[in-house]
Specification:
The protein has about 600 residues and is an alpha+beta fold. It is about 20% helix and about 25% strand.
Length: about 600
């Protein structure tokens, strides 16, 4: 890693252009999961143009976003640097620290600094015309795309969601419009309009080298689609890709890619244009606004906002001169140095990413063992907690900053990250934990700190205490909280000695009746569980409800809390007669009057 920034001591040297510069088209879709495309296995979404693109180009399966949320990945794409090094580790402006957060988020930059050299600046310096169309989300006035090397900016500003998916492209009050889209035909769809603007840029600059960054706002929330496309899809069963609105948005996005590729073909530019298609993070698989969740990333675990594969594994398809092979891993960080390499441009800029141009060209054949780091010291809107991760070869190690939880997965055998091997391979955990810690120090990753305003699960005015699964802590090997909406529960309680705790605040102490919202699969009922707060304990026999997500509200005994203040509820299994103890969605403590 030391070699990466040796170049900082050197004076800046402009990139050196090679003869026959290829054009570059970088298409980034917002919140698109890898498994949302037909060429990556989706049977629900219709993506014929991208499927054809994957056949004629190179499709990478070990492709990762630099962060599980948008702005940091976009910064990495533009600079080739880790979001942690840039101190831009969350979507902008990010979620504020709340009383339920055990840790306080670190201060981050609210824009991409002007002193950072972007891909657009490097290509512009080499004689390229540069155009930005779509979402920017890396700063507002004074930090917009035109301040970072783009000659043209359409629709890019500090916002992370579109002001409107249908024209007029403005906020509801009409006081703010999307730049460059002030004039629009009534009812025009944003994805289509951005495609038109991208086509215009290509046509206008067909006789000179150009760089087009087409960053679609789709398929980000709010989920809004054309009604005729939406009508083609039916709602599917829970836990699958089943959202007609999202499917229609994907179809419009796919049509856009087809139009861009067709334009290049018609202008006879395809053979000399590098086209890259990717996403900024995994698909949104949890509830976040109307008509969500958007998708399901199976077989990958979870989705946007999470450090699991569903949050960081993304589609990556490319074609162009110098691109022949595709059996290699790639990360958002690799895009800038690789593009410069494919364009034959030399620079002394230092990158955290790698130049993969020779490997894509088949010149270098040595296998690449993935070594990627993630640092996300924030509580995400999607329910994840601050943490860091590293992938080294087949191993994926994750640690959570607000607890002692450590997880280790062998992705070569368990791409769903279902079996936590942290207790079985302590040697690997020790090694990767040190590598992650050393890397964080090297890039200057800022850590969250204890939250002085931490007030977990406060007692309601009527004395009730409601403990939702998402605010509890899983302890042990396999037990985990599963945020997908059809679950939203602690599950995988397959190891008896695993247990759950909740911190909570009491103002009015006394005796409380316990109510569990629990589910239990056929044949697994009968487990004895102990619920305790301090010295007060009660036991409860788990009911077979006919399914682990077949939840029922069941009385579970009485606990007495003698004093006001902070307390911890612990739920432990004393027996486990079936494959799992239960799924537990929430616990409610109701005061006995």
């Amino acid at each position: 890693m030391r070699r990466l920034f040796l170049a900082l001591a050197l004076p800046f040297t402009p990139v050196v252009a090679a003869a026959g510069q290829p054009n570059v088209v970088l298409i980034v879709v917002d919140d698109l999961g890898q498994r949302d495309l037909g060429c990556y296995g989706s049977s629900y979404h219709k993506t014929p143009h991208l499927d054809a693109f994957a056949k004629t180009g190179v499709k990478l399966t070990d492709a990762y976003a630099a962060c599980p949320v948008c702005s940091p990945t976009r910064a990495a794409l533009m600079t080739g640097k880790h979001p942690a090094r840039l101190n831009l580790t969350d979507w902008l402006p990010g979620q504020a620290t709340s009383p339920n957060h055990r840790l306080k988020r670190p201060e981050i930059l609210m824009q991409l600094p002007l002193e950072e050299r972007t891909l657009a600046e490097e290509l512009k310096n080499a004689g390229y015309v540069t155009g930005h169309v779509g979402k920017w989300h890396l700063g507002g006035k004074g930090f917009e795309p035109t301040k970072h090397g783009f000659d043209v900016n359409i629709a890019g500003d500090d916002t992370g969601t579109p002001l409107s998916y249908f024209a007029p492209f403005q906020n509801k009050a009409g006081t703010r419009k999307m730049p460059g889209l002030e004039r629009a035909t009534a009812g025009e769809y944003l994805t289509d309009r951005l495609t038109v603007e991208a086509e215009k840029f290509i046509v206008s600059n067909q006789n000179k080298p150009f760089f087009l960054y087409l960053a679609h706002y789709a398929v980000h929330t709010p989920l809004v689609a054309k009604k005729d496309l939406q009508a083609k899809y039916k709602v599917g069963p829970p836990g699958t890709q089943n959202n007609p609105i999202y499917a229609a948005m994907i179809e419009s996005m796919d049509e856009s890619v087809g139009r861009i590729l067709k334009t290049l073909d018609e202008l006879k530019l395809a053979e000399k244009t590098i086209v890259i298609f990717t996403s900024d993070n995994g698909g949104l698989a949890t509830r976040e606004g109307p008509n969500t969740p958007a998708t399901n990333n199976a077989p990958f675990r979870e989705g946007k906002g999470h450090l699991y594969e569903g949050g960081v594994r993304v589609p990556f398809i490319l074609r162009g001169p110098g691109i022949k092979v595709g059996d290699l891993p790639i990360n958002s960080l690799d895009v800038m140095p690789t593009v410069l390499g494919l364009c034959g441009l030399k620079t002394n800029l230092a990158f955290d990413g790698r130049d993969l141009s020779k490997r894509l060209a088949g010149v270098e054949h040595l296998p690449i063992a993935p070594l990627y780091f993630w640092h996300y010291p924030h509580y995400a809107n999607q329910g994840s907690r601050p943490g860091g991760a590293v992938r080294s070869g087949p191993w994926k190690y994750i640690e959570f900053y607000d607890s002692d939880r450590r997880e280790l997965f062998d992705l070569s055998k368990d791409v769903s990250e279902s079996r936590n091997l942290a207790f079985d391979r302590r040697d690997v955990v020790k090694e990767l934990a040190k590598r992650l810690d050393d890397w964080r120090s090297h890039v200057g990753g800022k850590m969250p700190t204890p939250n002085p305003e931490y007030r977990p699960n406060p007692q309601a005015a009527d004395g009730t205490i409601t403990l939702l699964g998402k605010w509890g802590d899983a302890h042990g090997k396999q037990l985990r909280f599963e945020p997908l909406p059809h679950k939203d529960t602690f599950g995988f309680w397959t190891v008896k000695d695993d247990f759950i705790t909740w911190d909570f605040e009491v103002v009015k102490p006394g005796s409380f009746e316990l109510e569990l919202m629990q589910g239990c699969g056929k044949g697994s009922g009968g487990a004895e569980v102990e619920l305790s707060v301090g010295d007060s304990k009660t036991t409860h026999t788990i009911k077979d409800t006919g399914g682990f997500q077949a939840f029922e509200k069941l009385a579970a005994g009485v606990l007495t809390i003698a004093n006001a203040g902070r307390h911890t509820l612990t739920v432990k299994a004393k027996t486990k007669p079936g494959v799992a103890v239960m799924d537990l969605r929430q616990v409610v403590l109701r005061p006995i009057k």
